[in-house]
Design brief:
By secondary structure, the chain is α+β, with helices and mostly antiparallel strands. It is 54% helix and 17% strand. A hairpin with a 2-residue loop joins strand 10 and strand 11.
Length: 415
């Protein structure tokens, strides 16, 4: 009988010890959960919840990397927008000087002084448009360009500039924006897109011919062709002035000439150039035209070329007629260039707004993913504290039971 009692005592002891160990482990696990604030500390705690939390953390990390890249792109575009602002300021200042140089009371020496000021501002302008970001990449490099995106004039002189790059604007995505702006669209003139033309005048003796700015239409038909107008005869009778002229297109005579245009004496004579039966160019002749005058109508290549032509024309103007022609053509080209600059600056502002919207969307996504992660692995602290207290009470009960088992006397053990 005593053997059975000793076996029963041993079983009771082992059971109490196992119960004590299990409750101690439960209390320790709940304590660890409370300390970490997580319901799933190890993947073995809940494999499905651990996988969900890991996916959420991976996506959050990717968003953070995209946000860091977006900040770099935002900084580059902000610098490019500031660069365009500086360029606009310089062009406006140059325009004011060009207007001032058109004062009819100025002497040739005064106009040369203005030309020197314009040269200094032009040099600053060239430095601004070739500005680079912190990584040494041109801010106006379009789809890729040389380290100096704008170069010129070309070999052989003239006012031609070139864009050493691939024109076009890089696309923006759902999580990023472009890092450079299309400098070709901002500063170079396209004959079909912009239709910016310049008139050069070769005067015959006794002529004071000055042309207006050139208006273009049907630019696809015009196609960037160069025209030359040569005045053959000028007659004045009955209060009317009639101008007879011939035209060449790219060096080839335009059929149907000579052409005539007339206006009241003392008023501008309107000239309209047609190609294929449609109007492509229009301008007016002012001053006193004479037989032998020639007017060259050619597309402008760039805003920089327009500025160079203005500087040369103002510096070389021996009298007010030459100055008026150079200044009138310069103002038309400068205004067209300003429009291109403003358009590209507005696009830069839209890119910065897009970056703000992307950042807001990414922040919303991060909050959602953080919520998914929290639901998968975070601990409900109220429930965690309650479970820990319950487990602690159970553990105390197990300790008391174990203590009762340990109180067996020697007589009880021998029985």
């Amino acid at each position: 009988m005593s053997n059975f009692q000793r076996i029963g005592t041993a079983n009771m002891f082992d059971s109490a010890l196992r119960n004590l160990s299990a409750r101690q482990k439960t209390v320790a696990d709940l304590q660890e959960n409370l300390t970490s604030g997580k319901r799933v500390v190890r993947a073995s705690d809940d494999p499905v919840a651990a996988a969900q939390a890991e996916r959420a953390l991976t996506r959050i990390s990717r968003i953070q990397a995209e946000q860091r890249q977006l900040e770099v792109q935002r900084g580059a575009i902000a610098l490019a927008e500031s660069t365009l602002g500086d360029a606009v300021g310089l062009v406006q200042e140059m325009r004011q000087l060009v207007v001032a140089a058109g004062n009819g009371t100025l002497k040739p020496e005064d106009r040369k002084t203005y030309a020197n000021q314009l040269t200094s501002l032009r040099d600053q302008f060239n430095e601004v448009i070739n500005r680079k970001d912190t990584n040494g990449v041109p801010l106006l490099g379009a789809l890729g360009s040389a380290l100096k995106a704008f170069a010129g004039p070309l070999l052989g002189g003239g006012a031609n500039y070139r864009f050493d790059g691939l024109p076009g604007q890089a696309a923006s995505g759902g999580t990023d924006i472009a890092t450079a702006l299309d400098g070709h669209a901002a500063l170079m003139f396209d004959a079909v897109r912009d239709g910016v033309y310049t008139a050069g005048v070769t005067r015959a003796p006794g002529s004071s011919l000055v042309t207006s700015a050139i208006n273009t239409s049907n630019r696809q038909t015009l196609g960037g062709a160069a025209y030359e107008l040569q005045i053959g005869n000028v007659t004045t009778a009955g209060g009317s002035t009639q101008v007879e002229y011939s035209l060449t297109k790219n060096g080839v005579a335009v059929p149907g000439g000579p052409f005539t245009a007339s206006a009241a004496t003392g008023q501008p004579v309107p000239i309209t150039v047609q190609d294929g039966g449609v109007d492509v160019l229009s301008l007016t002749l002012t001053g006193t035209p004479a037989a032998g005058d020639k007017v060259q109508l050619a597309p402008s290549s760039s805003l920089m070329g327009t500025l160079d032509s203005a500087i040369r024309g103002i510096a070389a103007a021996a009298h007010t007629v030459d100055a008026a022609q150079a200044i009138g053509q310069a103002l038309a080209g400068i205004d067209a260039g300003m429009e291109r600059l403003h358009n590209m600056r507005g696009y830069a502002g839209e890119l910065l707004g897009r970056a703000d919207r992307i950042a807001s969307d990414q922040e919303t996504r991060s909050i959602q993913l953080e919520g998914d992660r929290s639901r998968a692995e975070d601990l409900d602290m109220v429930k965690g504290i309650s479970d820990f207290q319950n487990a602690h009470v159970g553990y105390q009960a197990a300790l008391q039971s174990y203590a009762q088992v340990q109180k067996l006397s020697l007589l009880d053990f021998m029985r």
